[in-house]
Amino acid sequence: MINERYLLAKERILEIEAEELAAMPYRDYFRSVAEFLGLICKTYEEIRDGIYFTRSAEQLAEANEKLYEDVLPEEYDKSYANPVTAADLLGEHWGQTLAFVYTQMRSLISAAFEQKTFELVIHFELFLEIYASFVYAAQEGKAEPDKTAIEEIIYFFVSDYAEDMTLQRVKEKVDPAEDFAYRIITQENLSDIKYLYKYGEYITENQKKTAEYLAKASEQQVRLMADTYTEGYRIGFVKGNKDLSKKKVVQIVYPIGFERMIKIAIANFEKMGLQPSIMRTPHSIFTKRGTALGGYYSESPNKQYEYDHREDEALFLDKKMANRRLEVQREAHETYKTLCSYHAGPAWVEVFGEKPFTPQIRPEACKLSKKQQDISTWYYGQLGQLINEYIPGEERSFTIIAFPIPEIGAGYEKIMDETIKLNTLDYETYENIQQTIIDALDQCEYVRVKGAGDNRTDLKVALTKVDNPAKQTKFENCVADVNIPVGEVFTSPKLAGTDGTLHVSKVYLREFEYRNLELKFEDGRITDYGCSNFETAEEGRKLIAENVLYHHATLPMGEFAIGTNTTAYRMGRTYGIEDRLPILIAEKTGPHFAVGDTCYSHAEDVAVYNADGKEIITRDNEISILRKEDPEKAYFQCHTDITIPYDELGALYGVTAAGDEIKVIENGRFVLPGTEELNLALDEE
Question: For residues 196 and 207, what is the distance between their CA atoms, to the nearest angstrom?
Fold first, then answer.
């Protein structure tokens, strides 16, 4: 039946290119989208018939470029996927809607490669239904159909197929039998870069050169990368006082090009009794959230394109739709309840080195209304609680490790070698030095942080009182487990009394560069914010509201930490890549502050101890503790770290109840007795 629907839809789509049934200017739009869908059909069938991958690497690269060329930066100004262009060519009345439809059709590239006929068919039928509406309008002597009718078609498309698409997505997350990527990693010849084109993701020099680097790297080096990654995951369960033996599935998230490392990691996880679940990062409106990653990934063909479509759900989101989505999420998790209970959490591999990106904020793009923002925030809060019900936070863990990509510059291979060393630093040395910092700050009521030079930071961070200093502590001593590399002590601040300004001249957060980012806090909550990315302050506020606050009216300071990895800081300075270090590494290169949930989100009741045997009691703050009465008010489903680099730091010191100051960092250098060794890396050239 589904194959018959595919053939009928394909036949009709191929006819559109020669038709003149829709009125202009819409006729050209439908021809253009139909041409793209014809390419999707051709790709799908050649893969199905075993033809597609008989091509050479050069031919596969050309085919890959053809699939993505319409949204590449040099072509984007002419693309119907560009809401600005769509509004210009089709009118403001239709620009957003038809740009969304084309973008949704573009999500079918992955369906063609994974041979998901059902997904192809339902999208083809959506396109044909919308086309038929324009044709019918033209036959009735109208230039266009009623826009409300088209919006209704889209609304019911999303609502009707939410169940099927959500069920598939949850299955991919928890079921190792969904083995599309697993088969590529374990069965392909990873020394031949042709394998990269098996995914259907956009492939650039970054992926090719990364694969080539790993192909020629020694077995010892690649194994060291994999072992550090998987051992960090295992230790995370040990330090978190969680039982890994109860789990059977690990979710692997990795960048394309790292398959040789991931292949060894899979074998390591299997020795722990864990089978991998590996899903693609989402491209479809059914599964994506803004520009966030959620599975294995390549780089975007155009970050502006991704940003322009981050809020496409504005076309249909209402409370009824949000409830519908929650309903099908629960049904899907209930269907795979047993597999969910075996899910141990994600093991992430991140990359860094891409050129900083500041998006253009375009009024032509879809934008959530204030009411929709509130609905979206509510939905993701409810979804977080639902997921925690089936995959309990107190039973799962994670790990994250990062490596550079060739785009970082001419020193790529040296930076990669340095990063591997960085990820394998002696944790015992750091553990001992960090314990010195913890012992000092455990005596303090609050910490004062002040910027140097042009840095306007002036923060008072209140600390939770310790009732039993012999057995309790305020800070976790973080070595190389869930957050690789080593190098931080962190706590959940007491919100009452946490006040002041956090400022950093330049920081890179989740793909976006922020210049002169500034947040103001009162009683631990953000009260004002801004950055200098744009000509107007309001545009900067919008960027922060969407991508740091995630449309919440405010967020608490969920974490205060002191990064101690001066080796990472020195590496950034040596190679001039400070602005390209991922937050995973950057957070270890100075004090950092996370806004959103605490580090113990959904696992606050699990007792956690440092190596000295003391229990870390700061697992809650005044907001997260509300989980006991009203979980909806306790979590924000976000946690964003913002780091002040050492060279922008004037002072960091603790203040005791008696008013005595205990200095930890002064003028960018560690001055607390017992921490001087950390300055050695700062002195290296």
Answer: 8
Q: What percent of the chain has pLDDT over 90?
A: 82
With tokens 């012999």, the residue in question is 470
The predicted structure's pLDDT at residue 685:
57
Q: Compute the CA torsion angle 600, 602, 604, 606 (nearest 10 deg).
A: -100
Query: From residue 36, how far is each of 9, 68, 70, 109, 221 by CA, in Å?
Result: 14, 10, 9, 10, 43
User: How far is the C-alpha of 594 from the C-alpha of 589, rounded, in Å?
Assistant: 14
25-35 confidence digits (pLDDT tens): 999 999 999 99
CB within 8 Å of 187: residues ≥ 6 apart:
none
Give CA separation, 548 vs 267, 381, 623, in Å.
Answer: 37, 16, 18
Q: Which long-range contacts (CB under 8 A, 24 or more apart) does 233-237 make?
A: 233/269, 233/347, 233/397, 233/398, 233/399, 233/482, 234/272, 235/480, 235/481, 235/482, 236/397, 236/398, 236/399, 236/481, 236/482, 237/344, 237/397
Residues 30, 31, 33, 37, CA torsion sign: positive
The band of 163, judged by pLDDT with boundaries at 50, 70 and 90, is very high
Contacts of 54 (CB under 8 A, 6+ apart): none
Q: Is the pLDDT of residue 481 over 60?
A: yes
Sheet holding 649-656, edge to edge: 525-530, 512-522, 494-509, 458-462, 444-451, 649-656, 661-666, 669-670
* pTM for the structure as a whole: 0.88
What are the angstrom distances between the C-alpha of 637 and each of 272, 548, 597, 601? Answer: 29, 12, 7, 9
What residues contact residue 160 under an 8 Å CB cut-off, 6+ apart?
none
Find, among 440, 329, 402, 328, the residue nearest to 565 by Cα. 402
Split at pLDDT 50, 70, 90, the class of 97 is very high
Helices (H), 356-405: 370-390
Q: Could you give the CA distance from residue 643 to residue 504 in angstroms, rounded to a whole number?
A: 7
Q: For 500, which DSSP code?
A: E
Interval 166-173 mean pLDDT: 97
User: Is pLDDT above 70 for 640?
Assistant: yes
Q: Which two tokens stand for residue 25?
A: 């200017």
Q: Is the pLDDT of residue 538 over 70?
A: yes
Burial (Cβ within 10 Å: 0-12, 13-18, ≥19) of residue 314: middle
| DSSP structure class, residue 579 | G
| CA R_g for the chain | 26
Could you tell me if 519 and 549 are in contact, meaning their C-beta atoms sit under 8 angstroms apart? no
Q: From residue 299, give the alpha-carbon distance in Å to each of 106, 180, 439, 584.
A: 16, 19, 43, 18
Structure tokens at 316: 């249909």
d(CA 172, CA 355) in angstroms, rounded, equals 31
Q: Tokens for 111?
A: 């369906």
Q: Is 344:247 a contact under the CB 8 Å cutoff?
A: yes
What does DSSP say about strands 399-404 and 343-352: parallel, antiparallel, or unpaired?
parallel
Residue 264 has pLDDT above 60, yes or no: yes
Q: Enumerate residues 6+ apart whose C-beta is below 8 A from 45.
A: none
- For the residues 522-544, what does the mean pLDDT come to? 93
